[in-house]
Design goal:
The complex is a heterodimer of chains A (274) and B (254). Chain A has 274 residues and is mainly alpha-helical. Chain A has two domains: 2-41; 65-273, MetI-like fold (Orthogonal Bundle), CATH 1.10.3720. Helix content of chain A is 78%, strand content 0%. Chain A contains eleven helices and no strands. The two termini of chain A are 32 Å apart. Chain B has helices spanning 48-56, 95-99, 101-105, 110-123, 139-152, 169-186, 197-203, 234-247, and strands at 2-15, 20-33, 37-41, 63-68, 71-72, 80-83, 157-161, 189-194, 206-211, 216-222. Chain B is α/β, with parallel strands linked by helices. The radius of gyration of chain B is 19 Å and the shape is globular. In chain B, strands 6-7-8-3-9-10 form a six-stranded mixed β-sheet, with helices on both faces. Chain B has eight helices and ten strands. Helices cover 34% and strands 27% of the residues of chain B. Chain B folds into two domains: 2-79 and 155-247, Rossmann fold, CATH 3.40.50.300; 90-154, no CATH class. Classes of the chains: A mainly alpha (274), B alpha/beta (254).
Amino acid sequence: MTQDSALLRFYRRIERALVPVALLIGWELFSRSGVLPPALLPAPSQVLLAWADWVFATDDNTQTYSGHWLQDVAASASRVFAGFAISTVLGIGIGMAIGWSRTVERLIEPVLQILRPVPPVSWIPLAIIWFGIANKPAIFLVFLGSFFPVLLSTIHGVKTCDRNLLRAGAMAGGTPGKLLRHIVFPAALPSIFSGLRIAIGSAWMLTVTAEMVAVKSGVGYVLWDSYYFLRYDLVIASMVSIGLLGFLSDLAIKLFAGRVLRWQRGSTLQAKEA
Amino acid sequence: MSLIEIDHVTRLFDDPKRGSAVKALDDVSVHVARNEFLCLLGPSGCGKSTLLNLIAGFDKPTSGSVRVGGQSITAPGADRGVVFQQPTLMPWLTVWENVAFHLTMQGVGKEIRRKKAQHYIEMVNLKGFENHYPSELSGGMNQRVGIARALLMNPEVILMDEPFGALDEQTKMEMHAELVRIWRDSQSTIVFVTHGIEESLALGTHVAVMSARPGRIREMLTIDLPRPRDSTSPQFNDTKRRILQLLRPEPVVA
């Protein structure tokens, strides 16, 4: 029995890694088998070499990009951060106003609901005309992509706030402004955080898109540029980098949410997982 | 002079589906003096919660007047502390922060809030649970937090809407004893809505027996049984019998 549980413990430890490792091995074998020309589907080992040079300038195989990874990542991340920050502030602010006031809802919501289905990518031509080729069109695009998830989840959070809590607040002598700050906002936070997590995904997606078209730096630009030079190993290294950054920024939001929403611990399924 | 004056209050609720109006309260007049403990007793739908909401300021009468301390009621206010049917605590605040919520609304600093809250937390016997969240406490404990929150406002009146309805019998009895103690210690005036005859007799100095559709006060009883009240004593049962007779459906006049 002890042997069994030791085995089980070992399995639990490697459980999460099983499928990724199997996929990597399969990919490596397939690439080396020669079914496809190696240039078209570089093996993971080759991607790793390109990536290592991109990050640490190991053997100069990525030439101009050698050792530039941190700069490229910083360029993309700063755009994501700027656009996401604007979305967060405006999305929560406008969302609270729409959720709280029928008048504001009637005035603003129709416009927003018409703008919402327009894919952010289709704004690229106008964004370039308005802001030129630089950071601004990318930030604008990130904002467009991440604003609506924040907005909608905030509205939802405000609207589903328990009326009885507001009664209790009014009973305790709260003015509308105080009720908004001390009851409606905290009550909407769980919903707001799930909106932020969706938004950060869109933010990375749009930074990369913008960098392919309208900017000359960042991970997305490296990806597109490597495509022109037939460096598919670097293309894949860029893709993995983006995935990693997206994962890390989502994790940061998740951990932050777990701290802020610690009152949920033990009362919801979601909190238990976090 | 009465602290709470309810005069000829009628409350109609529109029923747009049927194009008619439901009379929840029909010409109700009740006066409550300072330091009284009034129980509003009646079956579901007799308008007792409606009456309480009018005093709390959550609702307005269709006609008639509701005054507390001579002031006409137009909105909820901290002079009337409400203990709700459900504890209705802010789930993101700890026990002490919930108790001190009134002070937060007034912009009082943390240290003073913490200190003041402690007094009322001890009054409702929740010492040691100051930093727990409502989700970590039982229903009865949460209801105590709700009571402490209302007490901290030092209100003219405490309004309670079946606050112990969801509790088991034994916890309910403990809460009754404690509520009577708190009522005595704090010299407050309480209006307590219930559908439990024994509950009203265990607590009240007065019991207003209500009838349903339309909601009216059938009779106002003064309960002068000795405290602590013994629910097995003959006097207690005599009063209970009387209330049961009052609550029996009125004979239909042919």
